[in-house]
Amino acid sequence: MLAISPSRSFSRGLPVRTCFITILRRALFVCACGIVLFAAGLAHAVPIHYTMNAIGTGSFSGQPFNGAFTIDLAGDTTSVTQPSSGVFFSGGIATVNVAGIGSGTFTDQIVAVSNENFLVGGISDLTIGLALDLIDAPGFASYDLKSALGGITSTVSQLSGNPFPTDHGDFHLTDQSQGTFSATVPEPSSMLLAALGLLGEVVCVQRGRRQRRC
């Protein structure tokens, strides 16, 4: 009677350990391919952050301020619309942070705006149709909100003087001495880069095994 070692059971002529490693490598290959395809699909909707860093006067959550504040809108390039020639909107989740007071998320529909016709851009409230914080600058002459934008600074602003609701009270900007509008696009996804590295490693291992068999 043929004795079989407890540590060596055969399946299709291969030891259990070899079979397990082969299955594991195939699983890693499939996983890496899935991550690459998933991340590639996300690449069509490129995340983008529009930011207005400014110095102004007003109140937030019932507290007066006279200094720095930041409005940030997180969107993606697929959300950019063009309601008329030379005018671009991009919606998303918008927040405000006022130095020394705190932060809040706007509850109206807020959009980033670029008007190439009048050289104006910034942040507006689409729900009530009023400018939240717009600045005049030549840099908006050819900007469609779909790419990164270095800081455009201006001392000329367009404010409605209206209070804008957030989840921490109204943000009310009454005057502004300077504003800088910018847009940033994150670097390529670390998940995609990791998946490509894993995929390459698995392919190299598979090629090495085939060469050893020759």
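The record above closes out task 2.4. Task 2.5 opens with a second protein, given below.
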Amino acid sequence: MFIAALARYADEYLRDQLAAYAFEERPIRFVVLLDDDGKPTVRDHVEPDGKKKPKAKAEVICRAPKPRGSRIVPLAGADNVAYLFGAHSWSGKQHDRNERSSRATYELAKSSGVAVLQPYLNLMENEKYLKSVRDQLEKGGAQADMLAALADADGNFVVNDPEFKEWWVSYYDKQHAETLGPPMQSCITGELVRTARTHPRVANVPGANSRSALVSFNASAFCHHGWEQSENSPMSVRTAAAYVAALNDLMIPGVHRLGDSDVECRTRFSMKQDEEVTYLFWMDVPSEVD
């Protein structure tokens, strides 16, 4: 079974990534350095991309504990510039939403009690500093959906702070538990699990402009027996995260990359695209295909 095979791949080669389930890698366009008082300095966070314009560097940030969609689900340490710092020239028709989102982000940081977030609170409570960070971001070409990450004056990312990580995992678990479905038998492992109502989206899909869902039941015609969303294909949150992590890893551009395992050269994988179809394959014992 394809999803089961992908989950096994993740269990074998992506153990560290699965252990960090409350976090994910996203492209960070700006880093906002804050001194203890909250005074901001905005820096571009890009890397060369061949002949193209420089692209945002990928960094680990907090994963949203609930689907965002039209809901306001605050994150901490890094997020869209509009959700971190509120409405500005980038807001357009989203002015009210951006203001409410930044207020929710501020309240979450304030309730955390995490020391490394105090400079962000100081910034948000200082009109001069808040205007400064917005103006610097605007000058740098920021758009509302570009991501910015908070860092201390030495460039250390807030998200990497041990106290912050411990707090976020605890917060994520409590919030995410509210999204789980009823106990059901997993169609992948056969175990009784609390089902993931929605699954993470797959990145790096050739030809796609955004992340794509492999398992999705977004219309009643696709559902059976009164089940909702992904209860129609029940599996645990970990299994859903595992197969998506495997796909994201396997579809990184490039061919014949060795897997990372305790067993040397255990897996070799590749991707081949033929017009509208992408063929994904990986094999045990790479020597057989050398």
